[in-house]
Write a structure and sequence with these properties.
5% strand; single chain; mainly alpha; two-stranded antiparallel sheet
């Protein structure tokens, strides 16, 4: 996979996320399916912030926290954002994430390495796919939150926005 192919794939994966955020009713930002789960507002903000976290790691090998334990603790402290707050952060973070691949050459993408918290020393293409997998998992989670809230969404909204 070339960096250009990855970039296009990432655009296709990230694009429907904004519209899913917009389906979250404003009065449901603090809704959660079970005690201890992210609220809808926390989940949206986590999705947005994770793109920035991974973009900085992929581009600069700079990770905001030193270990997986720190990630788990930080995740539990995520604020519960409104839809508009989460959208604003998401737009900035997804642009940052996509921009790193627009400026990266194939050699760096395929053979450059980072020392990631999640996977250890790994090629940039692998941690980039990991970042998209992470996003997809949470996008599916948000989709199920919407269904549990009674919002009428289907696979079109999940995959096409």
């Amino acid at each position: 996979m070339t960096v250009a192919q990855f970039h296009q794939y990432a655009v296709e994966i990230l694009q429907p996320t904004e519209s899913l955020f917009l389906f979250v009713p404003e009065d449901k930002k603090d809704w959660q399916p079970v005690e201890g789960a992210f609220t809808a507002g926390q989940l949206m903000l986590h999705m947005a912030e994770a793109l920035r976290f991974n973009a900085n790691g992929i581009q600069k090998n700079e990770w905001a926290v030193p270990s997986m334990r720190h990630i788990f603790v930080a995740n539990r402290k995520t604020s519960s954002a409104t839809v508009q707050e989460a959208l604003s952060t998401y737009r900035e973070s997804s642009k940052l994430f996509l921009d790193i691949f627009a400026s990266m050459d194939n050699e760096e993408f395929q053979h450059g390495e980072v020392d990631s918290i999640q996977m250890g020393k790994v090629q940039k293409w692998r941690i980039s796919l990991f970042a998209l997998d992470h996003h997809l998992n949470h996008k599916a989670e948000l989709f199920m939150y919407l269904k549990l809230m009674g919002v009428k969404v289907g696979t079109k909204e999940l995959y096409q926005g």
